Structure formats: structure tokens, C-alpha cells
Amino acid sequence: MSAPLAELNREVVACRRCPRLVAWREEVARVKRAAYAAEEYWGRPLPGFGDPEARLLVLGLAPAAHGGNRTGRIFTGDRSGDWLFAALWRAGYASQPQSVSRDDGLTLRDCYVTAAVRCAPPANRPLPAERDHCLPYLERELTLLGTVRVIMCLGGFAWDAALRTAIALGETLPRPRPRFGHGSTAAVGRWTLLGCYHPSQQNTFTGRLTEAMLDQALTSARKLSRPQ
Known about the structure:
Blueprint: H1 3-13, H2 19-31, E1 49-50, E2 56-60, H3 68-71, H4 79-90, E3 111-115, H5 128-144, E4 150-154, H6 156-168, E5 185-188, E6 191-196, H7 201-206, H8 211-225
Parallel strand pairs: 2-3, 2-4, 4-6
Antiparallel strand pairs: 1-3, 5-6
Helix pairs in contact: 1-5, 4-8, 5-6
């Protein structure tokens, strides 16, 4: 990892910009869920992680209260992450199909995973101001991850955050403004945005998102990220 990216990650972890999120993430880490009562929760914002030379960036919404907020790594230790990392493994992006802790040996190849909001929000619903406080981190992340060509947005919130970040970095959006949908794509500057339903339990339990759909999204991401 480059020194500037490591410095960015340290800044993310130390962030206390949003009082509501600080209070919530720390309360969850103090009270804990019974199943994890013996564990020490992370209880801080989460930096992104993965291959600093990645061509694919996977952008989620925010850490789960008892997932990333517990383990200290985004999408690690919750059912959404179970789906995501199993799919990344099947697609050749991840070294193993499971992610249970930040020191479990998982590595990513040609892929970097991050979130639009870095703290676990109450009811998994960040406020617009909280999203905006986090956007500068994503701006800097994308600037430092200079090889990224595809941003796979897990859900409409991540899609909107990616568009806002592109605007902040000086890019002009296509007209009409690209709308999120599973499989939707939009060329924005040097990136192609790719929409994918979030692997939340609400989507996976109802069949709105299937393993085959997630695999196909990653196949598309691989094709779109190849040098032209």
C-alpha cells in the first residue's frame, strides 16, 4: 500500500465528523450482540481495503453494525459480506470465499472494496449530511487508486455517491443523469459505473438478487475493466 493511501486510511479510522454516527457505532460496540459478547468490537470508521493496483472498485453503502463495525473490515462478518466475498472468490478476485475477521488471510487481486459511508448508521440509513461528510474520502481514494476503471455500485445509494464523487472530481455526467438499475452502466470520465443490487438479506432472501446475478455482474465488471 502506498504511503498516501495508508495515510488516508488512518484519517478515516480517526474520523469523528458525524456525532450521530459516532454515538451509534460506539454504543453498538459497547453493548454488543449476545453472540459476539466475548469479542472486542472495532467501533470506528472503516477504511477501504484490497489491491492498490485494482481496476475494479466495489462500492457499498456503509458498514454493518455487527459486521464491519465489529470486525474492523468492510463487508466482513455479516451475511452481505458472505455473499460478496464468495462471489469475488468465484470470479477470481478474492483468495478465499469467506471473510470472518480482518486478519483471516483474505487478499484481493485487481479489486478494492470500500463504502460510501464509513461508519455503521442506525437502521442502515445514513443521512444526506453524513454521506456528504464521507464523500471527500472517496474522492481521495479514487484519486490515489489511479488504475480503477470500473466502480461496481452495490445499490442506489452507492450509485448516487459515485456520481456525486465524480462531479466533485471535475467530471461531467451524461445527460440525462444516469439512473441506477441492476446491470446499468454509465461512462463517467475514466470510470464505468456498473449497477448491482446490494447483497443485503432483504435482496438475497427474496430472490431479488441471486448468486447467478451477482456472478454476472462481476463478469461484466471484468470485461469492462480490461484495457481497450
